Amino acid sequence: MHFDPLDFPYPSRRHPVYATRGMVATSQPLAAQAGLSVLAAGGNAIDAAVATAAALTVLEPTSNGIGADAFALVWSGGRLYGLNASGPAPRRLSLEALRRDGLEELPAYGWAPVTVPGAPAAWAELSRRFGRVGLERALAPAVEYAERGYPISPRVGAAWQRDFETYARLPERELFRAWFETFAPLGRAPRIGEVWRSPDHARTLQRIAETDAEDFYQGELAGRIDRTSREQGGYLRKEDLEAFRPEWVEPIHVHYRGYDVWELPPNGQGLVALMALQILSGFELHARETVETYHLQIEALKLAFADGLRYIADPRHMSVRVEDLLSPAYAEERRHQIGAAALDPAPGRPPAGGTVYLCTADAEGQMVSYIQSNYMGFGSGVVVPGTGIALQNRGHCFSLDPSHDNCLAPGKRPYHTIIPGFLTRDGEAVGPFGVMGGFMQPQGHLQVVSSLIDFHMNPQAALDAPRWQWVEGRVVEFEAGVPRHIVEGLARRGHAARWALGSGGFGRGQIIVRLEDGVLVGASEPRADGQVAAF
After folding, report:
1. Are residues 441 and 483 located together in one domain of the fold?
2. Is 355 helix (H, G, I), strand (E, B) or coil?
3. Domain end call among 397, 423, 453
4. Which among 355, 338, 386, 93 is positioned nearest to 224, based on CA atoms?
5. Are 115 and 159 contained in the same domain?
């Protein structure tokens, strides 16, 4: 990949990090250092990814936890592997069960949106297949941080306070008692710079490490999850945990201006980013900061998202094939719908037929793109007492429309927002990238990839660049830093263009690029507390 390390169209807040022996990039500095410590002690990129992921459940619990889901892309031995560790709906969770319990929609909090957590199984599976030092060594930094504590970093502290206020307003205070006992033991959120520790996390992570995660799915921890669910009227049971296995899947890709852009197949929304890039590849983008470039990117993304929201689901339940949605012929059909004015996106008819991200690389050529999330901050708000396990609320993404591909059903995986990305060129690894942040993620992928490939921006500049976010219909929000003439020009084209309130919502990413001489170039998101740790 060619880029000028210093020349870009606006001041960058920091420069990329260069190294040769190993690199970890993520949204929390201590987590990056945890991964690097395992790498420097003889582990490989996969060990470092697992160490970082586990540490993030302690160091950034506002975005993920032990009860999270996870996805990974692993470059090893000259090829790319995909891991889907998202869990399905419990067998007792169905449309009929919700109606029986008086629920007309899936709430964001409580037991109803809880699906089977996949993150501990992901750690064990990655360590087993590709790791070198074993799960117990990889999880040791996370255990230590949970036992000894650590000072809260600024953005995590701000998010913690917001979530505390959210949970404090929820009814059924008893249901969320364990959350307050675990994450607000002093009756408030921990303050920025204040040391927070969680012995419950430490014990649970140690049990996961010692048993290669079997205790979480079959042993004492599984029993405690089951017991809590029964006592609180939840749907999750030990048999749901026992039946879960992470799935190795074939990554999907499109060719974009000499590079292959890789994502995981559904149930994740990486397909949206690929469809948008496939549409965009038919246009020439001459400069980044023009109304035309913004317009084409936004319109391509809107068309792709309309299809994604209609068709992406557990692949066993999708009514269209991924290859049809990614076909050049279908992209051309969608491309022809883009004109000079903003459109209201609608699904096409293809031919029949709050999240944490991290990336790692080692001197041997192995690289990992990994993402892990509870969804909506701390997730469901349900914490298993005495364990530190905060359960995700991924079921909130299910549709309750029986005719929709993503309709809730027992044992079915929901539409998933978290997506790791990867770039290759001519069959060789370029590197992992990701932008976390709910439905912003494929939008962030599109903008970062375009900045890297179309405009030859270095990885840090590509992350620093101000972003836009499509909201719905013709509504697009813009981050501070987008030139005013761009926003005004898009408004003249019919976009409902508006400045975003506040600085959140535009994602938080990391990138590692391997140059042809083997030098690693890393960048971490300025919108997070992140860091690139390298040696």
Report:
1. yes
2. coil
3. 397
4. 386
5. yes
Q: Which sequence positions are flagged as catalytic? A: 355
* C-alpha span between 289 and 294 (Å, rounded): 8
Average pLDDT over every residue of 348-368: 82
pLDDT digits (tens, 9 = 90+) for 68-117: 999 999 999 999 999 999 999 999 999 999 999 999 889 999 999 999 99
Residue 494 counted as domain residue: yes
Give the contacts of 237 (CB within 8 A, at least 6 positions apart): 90, 91, 92, 226, 229, 230
333: exposed, middle or buried (Cβ count in 10 Å: 0-12, 13-18, 19+)? middle
Q: Which domain holds residue 315?
A: 249-353+433-514
Q: What is the pLDDT of residues 140-198, one digit of tens each?
A: 999 999 999 999 999 999 999 999 999 999 988 889 999 999 999 999 999 999 999 99
Which CATH number goes with the domain that contains 300? 1.10.246.130
Q: For the chain, what is the domain count?
A: 2
Q: What is each CA distance from 253 to 202, 271, 422, in whole angstroms?
A: 39, 9, 9
Residue-level pLDDT at 353: 39
Residue 210: inside a domain, yes or no? yes
Query: Are the C-beta atoms of residues 106 and 393 closer than 8 Å to each other?
Result: no
* Residue 155 belongs to a domain: yes
- Whether residue 322 is found in the same domain as residue 204: no
Asked whether residue 176 falls in the same domain as residue 72, the answer is: yes
User: Is 227 part of any domain?
Assistant: yes
What is the CB neighbour count within 10 angstroms for residue 513? Answer: 26
Does 210 lie in the same domain as 104?
Answer: yes
First to last CA, the chain: 21
199-210 and 220-231 helices, crossing angle to 10° = 130
198: left (phi over 0), alpha (psi -120 to 50) or beta: beta
DSSP string over 210-263: HTTTHHHHHSHHHHHHHHHHHHTT----HHHHHH---EEE--EEEEETTEEEEE
C-alpha pair distances (Å), 421 with each of 87, 92, 266, 482: 20, 34, 13, 25
Query: CA 285, 288, 293: angle at the middle one, nearest 5?
Result: 50
CA quadruple 268, 394, 317, 124: dihedral, nearest 10: 70
Q: In 3D, which of 453, 401, 391 has the Cα closest to residue 425?
A: 453
Residues 474, 494: contact at Cβ < 8 Å? yes
Could you tell me how far CA 298 lies from the centroid of its own chain?
Answer: 21
> Three-state DSSP class for 403?
coil
- 170 with 253, same domain? no
Q: Which helix (DSSP H) or strand (DSSP E) does residue 435 occupy? A: strand 428-436
- Evaluated on CA atoms 174, 179, 185, 191, the torsion sign reads negative
For 473, the 3-state DSSP assignment is coil
Does one domain contain both 296 and 218?
no
**In contact, 51 and 59? CB cutoff 8 Å:** no
- Same domain (yes/no): 34, 106: yes
d(CA 507, CA 356): 10
